[in-house]
Amino acid sequence: MKIRTLIGIVIGLVLVNIPVQWVVARWDLTEDKRYTLSEPMKGLIGSLSSPLEITLYLDGELNPGFHRLQQAVEDFVAELDMYGDVQLLAGNTDDKALKTCTPTVIHERSKDGRTIQTTIYPYAQLKYGERSMMINLLKNQRGKSGEENLNQSIEGLEYAFAEVIHAISKQEVERIAFLEGHGEWSEHEVFDWSQSLSRYFQIDRGILGTEKGVLDGYKAVIIANPQQAFSETDKYILDQYLMQGGRIMWLLNGVQFSSDMLSHQGTTPIIALDLNLTDILFRYGVRINPMLVQDMQCLPIPVDVSQDPNQPNFQPIPWTYAPLLLTSQNSSITRNVMQVSSTFASSIDFVGEEDGLYKEVLLATSSASRITGTPAEVDLTDLTILPEMFQYAYIPVGASIEGSFPSFYAHRMPPAEISNLDNTIKQSVATKQIVVACGSMARNEWQNGSPLPVGYDRYTRTQFGNQDFLTNAILYLTDEQGLIHLRQKSIVLRLLNDKEAYANRTLIQMISIVTPILILCIIGLLVWCIRRYQYSKWNRPTLVQ
After folding, report:
1. DSSP code of 441?
2. Are 87 and 166 in contact (CB under 8 A)?
3. Number of domains in the chain
4. Domain harbouring 76, CATH code
5. Which of 104, 214, 389, 504 is least surrounded by CB atoms within 10 angstroms?
6. 102 with 119: CB under 8 angstroms?
7. Taking a C-beta distance cutoff of 8 angstroms, is the pair 309, 326 a contact?
């Protein structure tokens, strides 16, 4: 009887394990579904026709925080492998691929009080076919703790991998264009931003001309800091490009000023900048106001406060005309993006609230702001800040608009200069635009013949979130698969309260020690009672009648 039972058990185990080899089932019981891939990611990884190689360089003697990041990456790659052919490889810090990557240096104290310095490379290389790209796994925001930055890095893993996989697996590189012909930033002035975008797109520059379909081959168009008015021909070409599903990013100033005059004379007049775009933007649901925003949350500038011209004394003075713009944490574009630096920014208003368009504020001032109308004069000798003057809060400076736009030329005659003119499209297909009332945030400075990162302030030596915002904005505009929404994934960080833990350490220790022992005792008692009952039942004497 015992042999038959044993054979039956063995056969049952074999029959159960046969289908398990081909059927994989996992249940993500976490509240925030941190181990579950999104549907766009499943579709992306499933569409790959050849193996995806992922080389992880985050290795070595890691502290608990970075070990958690390493484990999160390995778990994520294992999840990817369930929906595609993915290979995880261990990288070597001597690889040539790391030559352009900046390592992270960690300073920790040992038990004996010595400072230990560890250099790690929080990077991964993705290779698909002949194309490869690096990913920086560590997001390091100023003002946040190490645990918060590591948690933010884990949150962004899926999107970081998704955008790179999408970029290296595309059969044809998409094209975007920087518009020229109206005094826009030159290639030299947006070099750093262009370099960031070149990982994903082919970048062209040029003027519009008079041909209606000149922009048809471009996924998105960037208009960065124009200083001269747009002609009706320019507006018509842009309008019809938008009607066919084109995407536009507007980086426009609402006012005109002279940086050279301000640097040399300490003063500059501020007047409204007429770009002949107010009417067309109004039609699209937004208005850029010809006025300046000032903010008490701003960058400082060095000002000579000495009374003796022979002994200059430069002190940092808050420059309210250079606000540090807050980023919306509800938007896929700006979530977990640091403050964005700006200079001489203007405000924007939404108009036509019943037009069926979805509008979202991306950038705004702080809770202590003010608005200065034009014409006005900015004087470096008058930097007095009175808090009672800053009564406005969260003034919008940048926004996204999405939906079906009406054509500005739906009831207007097209310009006579347009060649190959056919019927004017009066309503657009579903598309997107981004409008920012500040052109300066896209410009990078140069030092010793090398470009500085866009958003880097030389005086405070601080990197702001300009590049992340600008690049995310273009990725949002060109995104057809909804991958950008992966940036909204949130993982709740449940940190231990050190003070509370220390105050209740005795209770916590008792619970940690006594609870497992108590559970084992209860289980043992139940087993003993059950076995005693069964033994007494089996050995109960049978009455013979």
Report:
1. G
2. no
3. 2
4. 3.40.30
5. 504
6. no
7. no
Q: Of 473, 488, 503, which marks where a domain is finished?
A: 488
Residues 104 and 215 in one domain: no
pLDDT confidence bin for 477, thresholds 50/70/90: very high
**How many other β-carbons are positioned within 10 Å of the β-carbon of residue 101?**
16
DSSP states of 299-351: EEEEEE--S-TTS--EEEEEEEEEEEEEE-TTSTTTTTPPPEE-SS---EEE-
> 277 versus 15: which is more confidently predicted?
277
My answer on whether 347 and 447 are in the same domain is yes
What H or E segment, with its residue span, contains residue 203? Answer: strand 201-206
The token duo for 348 is 């924007």
Residue pair 170/128 in contact (Cβ under 8 Å)? The answer is no
Q: Rounded distance, CA 352 to CA 285, Å?
A: 6
Domain that holds residue 59: 33-168
CA neighbours within 13 Å on the CB side: how many for 457?
22
Which is nearest to 287 in space by CA: 362, 351, 230?
A: 351
Identify the band that residue 320 occupies on the pLDDT scale cut at 50, 70 and 90.
Answer: very high
For residue 274, what are its two tokens? 């007429």
Residue written as tokens 């920087």?
178
What is the rounded average pLDDT of the residues 459-467? 91
Give a yes or no: residue 493 inside a domain.
Answer: no
Q: Which residues of 178-217 are buried (b: 16+ CB within 10 A; e: fewer)?
A: bbbebebbeeebbbbbbebbeebbebeeeebebebebbee
Question: Are 306 and 453 in a shared domain?
Answer: yes
Same domain, 118 and 230: no
Find how far residue 276's CA is from the centre of its chain.
32
The burial class, CB within 10 Å (0-12 / 13-18 / 19+), for 226 is: buried
What pLDDT was estimated at residue 201?
A: 93
pLDDT in tens, 223-273: 999 999 999 999 999 999 999 999 999 999 999 988 888 878 888 899 999
Residue-wise over 119-158: b if at least 16 C-beta within 10 A, else e?
Answer: ebbbbbbbbbeeeebbbebbbebeeeeeeebbbbbbbbbb
Q: How many residues does the chain have?
A: 545
Q: How far apart are CA 424 and CA 6, in angstroms?
A: 82
Distance CA 70, CA 56 (A): 9
For the full predicted model, state whether its pTM sits above 0.85: no
56 shares a domain with 192: no
For residue 391, being part of any structural domain is answered with yes
Instruction: Kindly give, in sequence order, each residue whose CB lies less than 8 Å from that of residue 121, ignoring residues fewer than 6 positions away.
Output: 57, 58, 91, 93, 98, 101, 103, 104
